[in-house]
TrEMBL record:
Lineage per the UniProt record: Eukaryota, Fungi, Dikarya, Basidiomycota, Agaricomycotina
Signal peptide region: 1-21
Domain Beta-xylosidase C-terminal Concanavalin A-like, first and last residues per copy: 379-591
Organism: Candolleomyces eurysporus
Protein name: Beta-xylosidase C-terminal Concanavalin A-like domain-containing protein
Residues marked Important for catalytic activity, responsible for pKa modulation of the active site Glu and correct orientation of both the proton donor and substrate (site): D181
Residues passing through the membrane, by range: none
Active site feature: D57, E233
PANTHER family in the record: BETA-XYLOSIDASE (PTHR42812), BETA-XYLOSIDASE C-TERMINAL CONCANAVALIN A-LIKE DOMAIN-CONTAINING PROTEIN-RELATED (PTHR42812:SF17)
Keyword entries, A-Z: Glycosidase, Hydrolase, Signal
Superkingdom, natural source: Eukaryota
Length: 599
């Protein structure tokens, strides 16, 4: 059987050559002019996105009392651990230092979400100086319900005295509001809550007071309706020079996304719109960075202002963007009594002078640009997998256990990755463990040792966006032409857009190490490689004989360029609803970064 057509090979070569040439250019500072006229005479060059991959809807603060550290949180939807926290001391090197949502007891309902766009939306991070307490306020959204159904919106907040210690984060405190994107503002011993009302019902930004000990809220008041763009949301309140500023997003989270701002002398309004709105957007441009919106503002230790926002590296074509919505950074000029002026978002930026490079950051996670090379030691002394490993909803502990020599033992779920209907997985969940794709070009691979004897038993690797958007290369037990069960390679894809038909081909007989004709015993390396910005190559070969590796399929990433999240790269196991229970032993987990496309 032909594994890779000449046409696909030619497409892969031409695309790779073009992208690598562009990539080399984008990484050469001498070929890039500053993105905006200088906002200061002491510029520092940095690169967007600062949090590459599935890190949308950012909210950030700067705390001198925490060793002059910046902290950011981002949306996680159905991914667990949820609400990742990143820290930096120099705005360039960002380290995963924990997750707000790290135990099922904190928010049991997340196990029951129905729809891939449900889950944790748009957290806001704030620090209360007097009580020395961190607060993260957010919404658990049941996106399958209509916006007019009040049970769609479960608004919640968490608190902690120690951001670095996972168990210090509280269980969720719930409060009632028919909307989402809540924000906290502290003044004169009171806490003000600002949020976006369900826009299909009554669009606008509303405000009230909240008791953070009980979750009790006061009467809601409409304070701003936005500038007229669709879905005013993502509000944040700031006070500067006697003015209260209200930052918001409008236009929806697609190509018309934008940042707008209003101000008032009073916290509860009336708010007047900035005549220069929108203050930040790449709508109707040819920029590679699109969908810019949902911003937050903060100062550094020198008093300079910065803004984070979400953006999608898609260009106006909006076709190939598997990392979907990421976190970008831009400098802001904010003169006394005036409106803030945001610099345009680009891949190579010139901004305020940054702190000196400093990677001495606490926390158990890795820096966002790091790769993986885990040979056997998957588990730490407490029995935990690496902090950046990610599941889809709460994991079933029995699926992911310590194997011999500290490798990962992966047991199958009855569900495959699409599960019950592409939106819901039920109590059985899915046996997938993954990490975020955080580079345009990369190679991800795992070694698997697997014995199987039942039809539809399957072990594989996936570029997984959601249950209804994923591209898989599996090794699955299927009948051959004579009816005998033998292992096959099988590519399958699920997406809202048309995907290539499945490719099924027998594993070469000499790769089967079993002496029993009724069983398969395999030691394989399974690989996903992005060698250009548009396609994944899925390959497999026997461990220790890399020269025999075969490319099974080359598939466009357009099928996983969709929605709110971002591609996860991982290994899965399933019985596909059958009787199989074959365990797999996973070792040599590698993610090798090979390039970032920014322009």
């Amino acid at each position: 059987m032909t594994f890779l057509s000449l046409g696909l090979a030619l497409l892969l070569f031409l695309s790779t050559s073009r992208v690598l040439a562009q990539l080399d250019s984008s990484l050469d500072e001498s070929l890039n002019a500053p993105s905006e006229p200088s906002v200061t005479s002491r510029n520092t060059t940095y690169y967007n996105p600062i949090l590459p991959g599935f890190y949308p809807d950012p909210s950030c603060i700067f705390l001198p009392s925490y060793e002059n550290t910046f902290f950011c949180v981002s949306s996680s939807f159905n991914a667990i651990p949820g609400i990742p926290i990143h820290a930096s001391k120099d705005l360039r090197n960002w380290k995963l230092v924990g997750h707000v949502l790290n135990r099922k007891e904190q928010l049991p309902r997340l196990a029951e979400t129905n729809r891939s766009t449900s889950g944790i939306w748009a957290p806001t991070l704030r620090y209360h100086e007097k009580s020395k307490t961190f607060y993260v306020i957010t919404t658990l959204v049941d996106d399958h319900l209509p916006q007019s159904n009040s049970s769609r919106w479960d608004n919640i907040f968490f608190q902690s005295k120690d951001l670095y210690r996972p168990t210090a984060w509280s269980k969720a405190t719930h409060f009632t509001f028919e909307g989402y994107d809540p924000d906290l503002y502290f003044e004169d011993g009171k806490t003000y809550l600002t949020a976006a009302h369900a826009w299909q019902v009554d669009p606008g930004i509303y405000q009230t007071q909240i008791d953070l000990d009980t979750g009790k809220i006061g009467e809601w008041k409409l304070i701003w309706e936005g500038t007229g763009g669709m879905a005013p949301e993502g509000p944040h309140i700031y006070k500067k020079d006697g003015w209260y500023y209200l930052l918001a997003a409008e236009g929806g989270t697609g190509l018309q996304h934008m940042v707008t701002i209003a101000r008032s002398r009073n916290l509860d309004g009336p708010f007047e719109s900035n005549p220069a709105n929108p203050v930040l957007t790449n709508a109707n441009t040819t920029s590679y960075f699109q969908t810019i919106g949902h911003a937050d503002l903060f100062q550094d230790g020198s008093g300079n202002w910065w803004s984070v926002a979400l953006s999608t590296r898609a260009g106006p074509q909006y076709l190939n963007f598997p990392m979907v919505r990421e976190t970008v950074l831009t400098p802001v000029t904010w003169k006394k009594g005036e409106w803030p002026v945001f610099s345009k978002i680009e891949g190579t930026m010139s901004g305020w002078a940054m702190p000196r490079e400093d990677r001495s950051i606490r926390g158990a996670g890795q820096f966002v640009d790091d790769g993986d090379n885990i040979y056997e030691s998957f588990f730490d002394s407490n029995g935990n997998l690496p902090a950046h490993f990610t599941y889809w909803r709460y994991p079933i502990p029995d699926y992911f256990t310590r194997g011999p020599l500290n490798v990962l033992r992966l047991r199958p779920s009855s569900n495959n990755l699409t599960a019950l209907n592409g939106n819901y997985a039920g109590p059985a969940g899915i046996a997938l463990v993954s990490r975020r794709q955080s580079h345009t070009l990369f190679t991800y691979s795992v070694d698997v040792e697997w014995e199987a004897s039942k039809q539809e038993e399957e072990i594989g690797v996936s570029a997984f966006l959601t249950q209804n958007h994923h591209i898989d290369l599996g090794v699955v037990m299927l009948p051959d032409s004579g009816g005998k069960l033998v292992p096959h390679f099988r590519y399958r894809g699920a997406s809202y857009i048309p995907m290539p038909e499945p490719i099924v081909t027998p594993v070469p007989a000499e790769w089967n190490l079993s002496s029993d004709d009724l069983k398969a015993k395999l030691k394989l390396r399974l690989e996903i490689k992005a060698s250009n910005m548009t396609h994944y190559a899925f390959s497999a070969g026997p461990v220790g004989a890399e020269s025999l590796t075969k490319t099974i399929a080359v598939i466009s990433n357009e099928g996983v360029s969709w929605g709110f999240t971002g591609v996860l790269l991982g290994v899965y196991s399933t019985s596909n609803g059958g009787e199989g229970n074959a365990e797999a032993y996973v070792s040599r987990w590698r993610y090798l970064p090979q390039g970032q496309y920014r322009d």
